[in-house]
Write a structure and sequence with these properties.
The structure holds two protein chains of two kinds. By secondary structure, chain A is of the alpha+beta class. Chain A contains twelve helices and 18 strands. Helices cover about 30% and strands about 30% of the residues of chain A. The termini of chain B are far apart. The chains are: A alpha+beta, B alpha/beta.
């Protein structure tokens, strides 16, 4: 739990079954006899003077996620345990930090930066480590732990205690079969995992990337230029590996670990699988340039990691293509660059859709992931444009004077000016897609192409027929050239 | 005074030519518009790989100016890729509609649309786009008079266009013309179309004014009609409807087609 700022005892409360109950208390409050589960009224009766704050599980989860990301520096295998624990698989990782003690020391250092209190334990299985960290008294003695460390249901713990089995050691000496018969298979399998009799693994929060390389620094680096140099170095290493495997990556992620435990993530994407260290470095430089809030190095970064989440096949050498294809590649590179600088959604390709609803006729997809562009169907020959160049979304309401109720507009007011219609064509009747909707299908739209005295061409529609709605409204939906 | 040797003169000329990047557009590739008057005024057609400005003085003519820019992009780019940059706000107000572009002859399949949030982002992206010789034409659409677009910015665009060969169309809507480094500057307004059967609105028609041209005649006006199939601008004369539209002198009969 996060430390309180001043000396006053603090408890977090939540409404449970109609009563305000404590869900977490800090050390000072615990020392006064407050415990989670107590109702707020009872707690106030015991200790009149303690601070109270609302419990915010989402904030807890966010904090835990941040800590888990920070622990990524020790091992990529980080799993969360309940709402307040982290389990790290540090098999083969500890030597980097000078053994387990060194790692624990480093974690304690980060914990002061994070302003959290940490209890830790090392053990051979995840369950054993979790039990020692949560229930241990300091010595790494599994046998001495209470049976609650099995983390079974409340009733089973009570039943075990009634049977005189108070510690893990009591259980460990007994044969398994009678225990299973009396307390259920769950209990014995938990015991087996706790004691290391059965194999058990953690499920890391994130899937491991296909390719990963990193640099650690004894002396943290702080300048952006140095970071870019390191990125270039990592990119070259990653590219060498990808070349050996005949693969390329479309997404490259950099994680910068600050020496005080904070992390910063940067990622780039390319439209095609890439395996060019120079390109990766240039795109990262572009990305860092375009950051709204510059990278804050704090006291410097002591670990920089490049990850390629997914590898895709890429021919061993880039083909030397002729003419058009080369410029095609350049266009794709330009799209990558623009997408990284402006944001992927801001560089689009228009894809035609098979629908007659005008506002759905074109789909704007991010260009970086759009399919290979194809030519659009050619419009019917000899016709003037039947669809506008600018489409208003949503359509803009206009005041229309029409000769006959269901007839074309004669005059309309739009944007505070009046337009006299001298030519029109229509109506083009577009009904709502009733086969796609369960409810009432929506109103029919009667579209007119109209031209005013000054030659401006508009696409207007009447929303609904007179028999559908009493007084249909008119809208201008687009402008023609 | 002694005469400098011819080789010295030639090298000096080359140096001057290098310094003066914006030399008059002689010997550049041009694409004919099909309209005799316009082609004559432009010296054979619209210069490729240059900066051209298209103005709609008021927002009312946004449709016409956008259409004219799309048409210029369509016939300068041929089948090459086109990048259209417009501000996010403009795109939110009135979307650029794919089917409408297709019906003007600019295939949306070879269009990439970029919608940066602010004019400064847009101009930065534009500088990058215009330098990329893989694309055939770029349309840079700006509404109003954004501060970052000054003479320096337009000179940069013009030089980039010249060195990469990307035909760059600067589409300015609701903006007053200001000094720039563009090869040509057009003012576009909507013009009444030649009606089709049953008095239906016809093919797109424009009231064009060639306001400025580097090293060429300027201040000329035409009324033209765009035909998607033939991909040429044809003379359009408006029929007698109100006094706002002047009649062209020699109306070709074929235009009634």
């Amino acid at each position: 739990m996060r430390r309180g700022d001043e000396g006053a005892p603090l408890a977090l409360i939540e409404k449970q079954r109609g009563a305000m109950r404590l869900v977490a208390v800090d050390a000072a409050a615990a020392a006064l006899g407050l415990a989670p589960g107590l109702s707020l009224a009872d707690a106030r009766a015991r200790v009149p003077d303690f601070a109270v704050a609302d419990h915010d599980p989402h904030a807890d989860a966010r904090l835990l996620a941040r800590l888990a990301d920070g622990c990524d520096r020790y091992t990529p295998m980080v799993a969360t345990d309940l709402f307040d624990g982290l389990t790290l698989d540090v098999t083969g990782c500890a030597h980097v930090f000078g053994g387990e003690a060194g790692m624990a020391g480093d974690l304690a250092r980060l914990a002061t930066h994070w302003r959290v209190t940490v209890r830790h334990a090392f053990a051979d299985t995840p369950e054993a480590a979790q039990a020692l960290a949560r229930y241990g008294t300091g010595e790494d003695d599994l046998q001495a732990l209470p049976v609650a460390a099995l983390r079974c249901d409340e009733e089973i713990v009570t039943a075990l205690t009634r049977a005189g089995l108070r510690t893990i050691g009591d259980l460990a000496q007994r044969p398994t079969a009678p225990l299973t018969a009396r307390f259920g298979e769950e209990t014995t399998s938990r015991l087996a995992r706790l004691l290391g009799r059965a194999d058990s693994r953690i499920t890391p929060r994130r899937t491991l990337p296909a390719l990963r390389c990193e640099r650690r620094f004894a002396e943290p680096i702080a300048r952006t230029a140095d970071v870019l140099t390191v990125i270039a170095d990592l990119a070259r290493e990653a590219v060498a590996t990808m070349e050996r495997r005949g693969k390329g990556g479309r997404r490259f992620a950099i994680r910068l670990f600050r020496s005080d435990g904070d992390i910063r993530d940067l990622a780039i994407e390319t439209g095609q699988p890439a395996r060019d260290a120079g390109l990766v470095q240039r795109l990262f430089a572009e990305r860092i340039d375009a950051l709204a809030d510059p990278i804050d190095p704090g006291f410097g970064f002591d670990l920089v990691r490049l990850a390629v989440p997914v590898l895709e096949p890429l021919a061993p050498t880039q083909l030397h293509l002729e003419g058009g294809e080369v410029s095609d590649g350049e266009l794709l590179a330009l799209i990558d660059r623009l997408s990284i600088r402006l944001g992927r959604g801001r560089v689009q390709r228009l894809v035609p859709r098979d629908t007659h609803i005008p506002e759905q006729a074109a789909l704007a997809l991010p260009a970086i992931e759009a399919p290979v562009p194809e030519a659009w169907p050619a419009p019917p020959p000899g016709e003037p444009p039947l669809r506008p160049l600018h489409l208003f979304d949503p359509p803009q309401a206009i005041e229309v004077t029409a000769e006959v109720p269901d007839g074309p507009p004669r005059q309309f007011r739009w944007r505070r000016s009046s337009h006299n219609v001298i030519r029109y064509e229509g109506p083009e009747r577009i009904a709502a897609e009733w086969w796609k909707r369960d409810d009432n299908a929506g109103l029919t739209r009667d579209y007119y192409r109209i031209e005013d005295t000054r030659g401006r061409r508009f696409w207007v529609f009447r929303h609904g027929l007179y028999r559908e709605s009493g007084d249909p409204r008119w809208y201008v939906h687009g402008l023609f050239a | 005074m002694t005469h400098a040797p011819a080789s010295t003169l030639a090298s000096l000329r080359r140096r001057i030519a290098r310094l003066e990047r914006l030399r008059p557009a002689t010997g550049v590739a041009r694409v004919a518009t099909g309209h005799a008057g316009i082609d004559a005024a432009l010296g054979g057609g619209l210069a490729l790989g240059r900066l051209h400005e298209v103005f709609a003085v008021t927002a009312d003519d946004a449709g016409a100016a956008t259409g004219f820019a799309a048409i210029l992009a369509a016939f300068t780019a041929r089948d090459g890729p086109v990048i259209w940059l417009r501000e996010g706000r403009a795109q939110a107000r009135a979307r650029l509609h794919g089917p409408g572009l297709a019906e003007l002859g600019l295939d949306p399949g070879r269009l990439v649309l970029a919608v940066p949030a602010a004019p400064l982002d847009l101009l930065r992206a534009a500088a990058d786009v215009v330098r990329c010789d893989a694309i055939a034409a770029a349309v840079i659409e700006l509404w109003g008079e954004p501060r970052p677009l000054d003479l320096t910015a337009s000179r940069r665009l013009a030089m980039a266009a010249e060195s990469s060969g990307v035909t760059t169309l600067l589409l300015r809507i609701a903006a007053a013309p200001a000094p720039s480094a563009a090869q040509t500057r057009w003012r576009v307004a909507a013009a009444p179309s030649l009606p089709l059967a049953a008095n239906a609105p016809g093919h797109p028609a424009f009231d064009l004014e060639l306001m400025r041209q580097r090293g060429g005649p300027e201040g000329l006006r035409w009324q033209v009609e765009w035909n998607r199939e033939t991909r040429i601008l044809a003379d359009a004369a408006a029929p007698l409807l109100g006094a706002v539209v002047p009649l062209a002198e020699h109306r070709p009969v074929a235009a009634w087609g």
